[in-house]
Write a sequence for this structure.
């Protein structure tokens, strides 16, 4: 028999459902007061089956689509797990893969038995979505993380960004670290992944893993021949943004490829608002391991012409008549399609791989501090 409280809440729900829409004023531009009342009511009814009331379900779905990422959003999905919200939850989670919201969304997708859908995206050819999916698996994959991400790590056709993300995700678990260590020890880890692996394994909480990894991996040296600290240590340091600007314009050579507020060369992405887009950790990765963090539309391509000319650069345009590549000096090269023998997208970034060799650790920290100040107005 239902308690008096359940009966009362049921009556409240019926009252909310029967209330005309125009009898309750809109609160804001997204969710009506009536939908809010229905949502609050169904959450309070123990064992309420959303499928038993089409109006209540419609109100909940409207709420979910209007309020993504809120605590109530996650609470409703966790409670009722409506299939109709899976696609939008997936897109929300992918768009917020580096945030708490994305991690919560991934946890719900796994709880709804949609982990295989995330794995499919992780193995797709869309690099940006694949990286985000790998990150989500790292957040919420649990014991399935190894089986889902090890194939991506071993996949030679996967981009460096995807495989580096897989190393970081696997590195969240000791069993994942052991898998990375095994690949390293057996010589199955390519050189372009060793920086990512070193950051994971040398900082392992398991001293045996760190000790064994040190036999095969090391972090690169800086300008003063000092070993680079791990990412975990670097992100704890704070620098001098004014000194970082000097590094950006001189030692770091950043302005030779990037513009900030109209100054510099336009080879790589404009960095005028980069501080609003990347976290401190992501900023270090973009400098120290650029091939693991290639910006969309800034991938490197190589052309080999029929007469043996090799050109490498950013793809500026491609038509039926010609391909235009911009090299690291900011010079555009137009190659007729009839002259092209090989045209191939590369896995590595046009950005130099060893920029840390130009700077001391202090200069690197100052540079990152400066880039973090480059933000959108209002941020």
């Amino acid at each position: 028999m239902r308690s008096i409280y359940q009966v009362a809440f049921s009556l409240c729900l019926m009252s909310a459902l029967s209330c005309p829409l125009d009898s309750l004023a809109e609160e804001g531009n997204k969710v009506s007061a009536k939908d809010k009342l229905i949502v609050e009511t169904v959450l309070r009814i123990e064992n309420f089956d959303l499928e038993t009331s089409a109006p209540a379900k419609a109100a909940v779905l409207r709420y979910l689509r209007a309020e993504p990422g809120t605590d109530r959003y996650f609470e409703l999905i966790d409670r009722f797990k409506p299939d109709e919200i899976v696609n939008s939850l997936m897109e929300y989670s992918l768009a917020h893969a580096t945030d708490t919201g994305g991690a919560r969304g991934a946890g719900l997708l796994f709880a709804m038995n949609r982990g295989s859908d995330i794995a499919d995206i992780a193995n797709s050819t869309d690099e940006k979505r694949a990286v985000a999916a790998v990150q989500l698996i790292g957040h919420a994959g649990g014991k399935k993380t190894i089986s889902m991400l090890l194939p991506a790590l071993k996949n030679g056709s996967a981009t460096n960004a995807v495989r580096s993300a897989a190393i970081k995700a696997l590195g969240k678990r000791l069993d994942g670290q052991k898998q990375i260590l095994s690949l390293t020890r057996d010589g199955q880890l390519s050189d372009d992944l060793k920086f990512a692996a070193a950051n994971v394994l040398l900082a392992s909480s398991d001293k045996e893993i760190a000790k064994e990894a040190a036999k095969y991996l090391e972090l690169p040296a800086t300008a003063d021949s000092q070993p680079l600290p791990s990412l975990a240590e670097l992100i704890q340091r704070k620098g001098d943004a004014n000194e970082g600007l000097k590094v950006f314009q001189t030692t770091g050579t950043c302005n030779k490829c990037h513009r900030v507020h109209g100054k510099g060369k336009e080879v790589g992405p404009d960095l005028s608002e980069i501080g609003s887009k990347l976290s401190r950790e992501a900023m270090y990765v973009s400098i120290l391991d650029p091939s693991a963090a290639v910006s969309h539309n800034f991938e490197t391509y190589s052309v080999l012409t029929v007469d043996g000319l090799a050109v490498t650069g950013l793809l500026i345009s491609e038509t039926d008549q010609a391909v235009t590549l911009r090299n690291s000096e900011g010079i555009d090269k137009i190659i007729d399609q009839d002259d092209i023998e090989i045209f191939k997208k590369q896995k590595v970034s046009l950005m130099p791989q060893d920029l840390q060799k130009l700077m001391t650790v202090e200069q690197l920290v100052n540079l990152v501090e400066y880039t973090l100040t480059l933000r959108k107005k209002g941020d």
About this structure: The beta strands are 26-27, 31-32, 300-305, 310-318, 322-326, 332-336, 340-345. The longest strand covers residues 310-318. Residues 332 and 368 are 29 Å apart (CA to CA).
